[in-house]
Amino acid sequence: MIDTPVTLTPTDAGLSDAEVHRIRNDFPILGTEVNGRPLIYLDSGATSQNPVSVLEAEQEFYEQRNAAVHRGSHSLAVDATDAYEDARAAVARFIGARPDELVWTSNATEGINLVAYAMSNASLGRGGEAARRFALGPGDRIVVTEMEHHANLIPWQELAARTGAELRFIPVADDGTLRLEEAAAVITPATKLVAFSHASNVLGTINPVAELVRLAQGVGAFTLLDACQSVPHLPVDVKALDVDFLVFSGHKMLGPTGIGALYGRRELLDALPPFLTGGSMITTVTMERAEYLPSPNRFEAGTQRISQAIALGAAANYLAETGMQRIEDWEATLGERLVRGLGAVEGIRVLGPDAGVPRIGLASFDVDGVHAHDVGQFLDDKGIAVRVGHHCAQPLHRRLGLTATTRASTYLYTTTDEVDAFLDAVALVRPFFGAHR
């Protein structure tokens, strides 16, 4: 049974390097060495590390509660179901949602595809009168942004191709922010859906959710928020954000891989036609037809990700106990330190907002004369783990005149000493490759 999160005392005390060092003791992998050097893990934007409480939650399920959920009446099955639904309640509470508004998925990508394919099914007439609001066809429009991760672009490309709808995007300015003056021209009365990221996984930009939601609601469009880079790092309240749908992944918020979640307003989820079909999501089945359960069960066909969901519940509790505002403030400090430090190194171009502008705790950069993969290898030799490539955002990189960048991303377990060691190493890259002449 997952306990209700307990807030640390005092809640208004910010994180410090001393407390971060204490937090690091909860993460076994952070004590390892890479290439004979202490690991400096600056790739949390791709996947975060797991505290002991999360590892133990999943292990405890298999050792003491392993059984199918929502299917058996024996004691073990009841215990497993209780733990599974307690985890749903914990994660829903973490984002300000009701448990019946949270659908388990494999990851955020599946959550986006769930909505896209459900809308496609509605466009084929599935789901009856209640689903007609989701139907698209020629003359309708889907709007995304130029900074989207491929996971929040390709499903909408495919939906447009299947339905004949038009796909348009809000462009990105040179400073890494959205060109909001053009958003109103793109989000027209023909728009049925506006899908956008809360925070960019490349630029660190925190997008103006309220303004984009206002524009979408003004034309009667649905909104879907990709919160992969915000739910782990910022306080998120889905009711305050007022979005219709929101997705995030467990492995980016201290949880295991193979689990994510889709939030949707209850009345919308109940009206959406199912995406995957099979067992556990039905009320009545004949040889000719089936009737489906309400949300969230109507979207959870087959054997579920039980242990992963329970571990994600433990991760949500860990973050809540630490305090999301404290985590946001700490990462803002680290992000500012990254941007200012990288900006002081000759031959480096930092993407996204300038120092002093709010961002999440990551920074992507280009080293003049050195390919990003070579930068990553150089840093890896020093025990520093970063991400290199286009970060699943090729259109954004193309817009900025680049093919690949190096990205350093922090989390609640990152110290200022680690950031400084990374900056010292980056300063050696161009001299090492002879690109400083």
UniProtKB/TrEMBL annotation:
Q: Which GO terms describe its biological process?
A: cysteine metabolic process
Q: Enumerate the SUPFAM superfamilies for this protein.
A: PLP-dependent transferases
Enzyme Commission identifier(s)? 2.8.1.7
The reactions it catalyses are: (sulfur carrier)-H + L-cysteine = (sulfur carrier)-SH + L-alanine
GO terms for MF: cysteine desulfurase activity; pyridoxal phosphate binding
Any idea where the Aminotransferase class V domain is?
40-422
Concerning InterPro entries, the annotation shows: Aminotrans_V_dom (IPR000192), Aminotrans_V_PyrdxlP_BS (IPR020578), Cys_dSase_SufS (IPR010970), PyrdxlP-dep_Trfase (IPR015424), PyrdxlP-dep_Trfase_major (IPR015421), PyrdxlP-dep_Trfase_small (IPR015422)
Q: Which cofactor does it need?
A: pyridoxal 5'-phosphate
Pfam families of this UniProt entry?
Aminotran_5
Q: Tell me the keywords, alphabetical order.
A: Pyridoxal phosphate, Transferase
Q: Which domain of life is it from?
A: Bacteria
Q: Which family does it belong to?
A: Belongs to the class-V pyridoxal-phosphate-dependent aminotransferase family. Csd subfamily.
Q: What does this protein do?
A: Catalyzes the removal of elemental sulfur and selenium atoms from L-cysteine, L-cystine, L-selenocysteine, and L-selenocystine to produce L-alanine.
The protein's matches in PANTHER family, at most eight in alphabetical order, are given as: CYSTEINE DESULFURASE (PTHR43586), CYSTEINE DESULFURASE 1, CHLOROPLASTIC (PTHR43586:SF8)
Name the UniProt record assigns to this protein: Cysteine desulfurase
Q: Which organism is it from?
A: Arthrobacter pityocampae
